[in-house]
From TrEMBL:
Family named by the database record: Belongs to the nitrite and sulfite reductase 4Fe-4S domain family.
Name by which UniProt lists this protein: Ferredoxin-nitrite reductase
Organism: Priestia iocasae
Residue intervals of the Nitrite/sulphite reductase 4Fe-4S domain: 135-286, 393-517
Gene Ontology molecular-function annotations: ferredoxin-nitrite reductase activity
Amino acid sequence: MAYVKTWENNEKINATEKKKLEKDGLEIFNDIPHYAKNGFSSIPKEEWDLFKWAGLYLQRPKEAGYFMMRVNVPSGILTNEQTVALANIAKDYGRGVFDITTRQAIQFHWLEIEQIPDIFNRLEAVGLSSAGACGDITRTIVGNPLAGIDPDELFDTSDIVKDVYEFFQHNEDFSNLPRKYKMSISSNVRNASNAEINCISFTPAVKEIEGEQVVGFHLKVGGGLSSKPFLAQTLDVFVKPEQVKEVAIAVTTIFRDNGYREKRHLARLKFLVADWGVEKFKEKLEGITGPLLSKGEEPTKEWNAGYFYGVQKQKQEGLSYLGFNVPVGRLDADEVLELARISKEYGNGEIRTCNSQNLIIPNVLNEKTDELLKEKIFERITVRPNSFIGYSVSCTGIEYCNLALVETKERMRRIAEELDQTITLDVPVRFHMVGCPNSCGQRQIADIGLQGIKMRTKDKQMVEAFEIYVGGTLNAGGKFNEKLKGKVNAEQLIDVLADFLTHFKEEKLLGENFHEF
Ligand code: SF4
């Protein structure tokens, strides 16, 4: 597909855009072998940002030369050999740190440039890649982690996700988008893929066509978080499963050729959709695809927020999947190897990652589930987590991230575990902690969102603090949480949250959820 580089001669494009026109982000793959041979000092500073297209960021502090790597896991589905390969990369090169992200990807830390070629080889050998995991490009595709085994899905979406992912993978026609570009595809009727916060989402739909009930998708566009969050809006179209790739290419083309490239903070697809409106966007879309059918019925029920805890029946007779909590999404490489062993012994070897930073072991014989749960590792990685640690999400934070204002992951874990010691609730409360407004930890959709900030104390000391936001949900079309007045010194955060939750417990009705309160 030819580029329509309408922005090429636009003098107003920002400096990043000018750089991207000089050198495409994916070209960094050609340079990495040279840098790996010659060491970190051989990488010019101007090239650092390009590493994002290879899924690599310099972790904090950049000058130390350690990389963080994000590996795409479309739909969150990992085979046994992929899980083992990832665990061994974390063990051999990443000091054992194995993080599950809010887009079902896997993140490593502490990598050195000399190690990257071997890591690429190991990933390629098992059909994985980090290409496009960061940068202004199509990111990994979020999907239903239960695709193919889910009693709550209209049909299996795993092959569609794979097909669309493979089309965009390492595709130089789409490697220079105005900003990052996030897609989700799922037919789970409990919105397992958080459709409304993606740039483009395919969501389950049913339509009567020539007297027959046909299953397919509705299309949402223009969602996204960061400091100006938007919920995606639904276009009046019905997309048949076989049209998904064509429609995804068309929407991405519209973004590539019309997205704003002058001010970087206005470059996401959400701003174009907000300006155009859904009618104009649909017109532009059909200008590429030709006429599409109009919307059908929406079968989506309430939102499950990506949580699948417990032992649950699959749609296949006699088989179960088990949904486990991974506290704040962080595992040790040895734990991952142990999970891979268990998933092979009891299931078909697969492990699936959830956007709630948790995991699923599928395809276990019903009569084997009790025995599986006796394995020692499941004392920590449990199917029945407590109300707070079981529903706490956290971004990377200051430990590794250059943009972070505060420490998040360990803090979120500590706070949740302490709250679990003191407060018992009959409903879960979903916490999301982020270290800056970029919101990788999806603060806006949390029951209680905690956003890091710096604050000056009365005695003029600069300290870590948090803003508190309440009431986010993706139920009934979605609503972002709202900020409570003021900020809280990080040292007092646990006490403030304990008071707040005690009040919630005293005032709420039995079974009443946080977003209904
Ligand atoms: Fe870093 Fe901010 Fe993203 Fe957290 S939300 S990982 S601090 S950029």
